């Protein structure tokens, strides 16, 4: 760890409310877009923490708005003056991503976007391909967010200090930085390997956005029990702890389980602290030095950008 933040006293036990309380002027009157706002996840706690410092607009983007209506209700209970916008967004569908971005771009309550928090994701799922023919974890964790972010860039660039937060994981080190076989056509599918690829892509996407003049930070929330682990079986758990973790030098010990309030804090440091350097990886509310070299390699980032354009049928510069 180092202390390239405004609050070196923040730790893995720091809560989202404590982070927001430290940066009220970075929240008040601003507009935030958060993907993955389901009530039992980190995204919801991120939003309710932000609400306590009175942003002007909170955009909640997820697959089923009726399921995260309780989060909108919680925001209204905290501050009824906050404009809450619910948007249908299925990150595993490029068509849905385009429709969601169009909704936000045309929404009169969203003249610009100060902060986009790409929080949604999948973990250790069985093999499947999306309707666009992309492995499901790579699609939902990276490709969908790549397309969503780039489509929203006009409104991000309209903000004075835009920030894009790509929520990643220490599991990025289970990737390789090589995305030449993202659909596992050449090698047998491994759900943890696929997760590692997608989380590595989150970090590399931040590197690419920084190269293009947008501040972007990739935080690891820590070990938090949420619905993200709904696909975990005993065998997958054993594989993570006995095979993969032991094979990676200096892999973070998973001996401190965070609650949701602690789980959203590093995301909020990434979103709110102006002292955090661009294109960095955060863990436990601080800049971390244990990021894999292949996950911050600019050549890998460039190749991933090119592949992402191909998978979305776009040509983002």
Would you write up a description of this structure?
The protein is an alpha/beta fold and 317 residues long. The chain has one domain (16-309): NAD(P)-binding Rossmann-like Domain (Rossmann fold), CATH 3.40.50.720. It has ten helices and ten strands. The chain has helices spanning 16-22, 42-51, 65-78, 94-106, 136-157, 191-211, 234-247, 260-263, 265-272, 298-312; strands spanning 31-35, 57-62, 83-88, 115-118, 163-166, 215-220, 223-224, 257-258, 281-283, 286-287. The strands form two sheets. The protein has an eight-stranded mixed beta sheet, sandwiched between helices. The protein has a two-stranded parallel sheet with strand order 7-8. It starts with 15 loop residues before the first helix and ends in a 5-residue tail after the last helix.
How are strands sequenced across the largest beta sheet? 3-2-1-4-5-6-9-10
- Determine the N-to-C terminus distance: 34 Å
Low-confidence stretches: none
Number of domains: 1
Largest beta-sheet characterization:
8 strands, mixed
Spell out the helices and strands N to C: HEHEHEHEHEHEEHEHHEEH
> Roughly what percent helix?
40-55%
CATH topology label: Rossmann fold
Strand percentage: 5-15%
The strand count comes to 10
CATH class term: Alpha Beta
Average residue-wise pLDDT = 92
Summarize the structure.
The chain is an alpha/beta fold and 317 residues long.
């Amino acid at each position: 760890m180092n202390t390239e933040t405004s609050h070196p006293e923040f730790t893995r036990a720091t809560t989202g409310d404590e982070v927001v309380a430290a940066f009220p002027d970075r929240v008040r009157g601003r507009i935030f877009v958060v993907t993955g706002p389901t009530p039992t996840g980190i995204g919801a706690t991120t939003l309710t923490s932000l609400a306590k410092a009175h942003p002007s607009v909170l955009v909640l983007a997820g697959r089923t708005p009726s399921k995260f209506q309780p989060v909108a209700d919680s925001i209204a209970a905290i501050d009824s003056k906050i404009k809450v916008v619910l948007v249908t967004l299925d990150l595993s569908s490029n068509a849905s991503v385009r429709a969601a971005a169009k909704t936000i771009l045309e929404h009169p309550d969203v003249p610009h976007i100060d902060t986009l928090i790409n929080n949604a994701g999948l973990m250790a799922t069985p093999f499947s391909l999306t309707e666009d023919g992309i492995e499901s974890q790579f699609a939902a964790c990276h490709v969908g967010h790549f397309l969503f972010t780039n489509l929203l860039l006009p409104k991000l660039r309209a903000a004075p200090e835009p920030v894009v937060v790509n929520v990643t994981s220490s599991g990025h080190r289970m990737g390789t930085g090589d995305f030449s076989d993202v659909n596992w056509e050449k090698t047998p599918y491994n759900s943890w390997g696929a997760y590692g690829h997608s989380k590595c892509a989150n970090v590399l996407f931040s590197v690419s956005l920084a190269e293009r003049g947008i501040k972007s930070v990739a935080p690891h929330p820590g070990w938090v029990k949420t619905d993200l682990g709904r696909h975990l079986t005993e065998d997958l758990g054993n594989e993570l702890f006995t095979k993969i973790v032991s094979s990676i030098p200096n892999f973070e010990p998973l001996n401190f389980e965070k609650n949701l309030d602690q789980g959203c804090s590093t995301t909020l440091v990434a979103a709110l602290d102006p002292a955090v350097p661009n294109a960095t990886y955060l863990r436990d509310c601080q800049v971390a030095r244990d990021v894999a070299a292949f996950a911050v390699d600019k050549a890998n980032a460039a190749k991933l950008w090119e592949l992402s354009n191909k998978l979305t049928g776009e040509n983002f510069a």
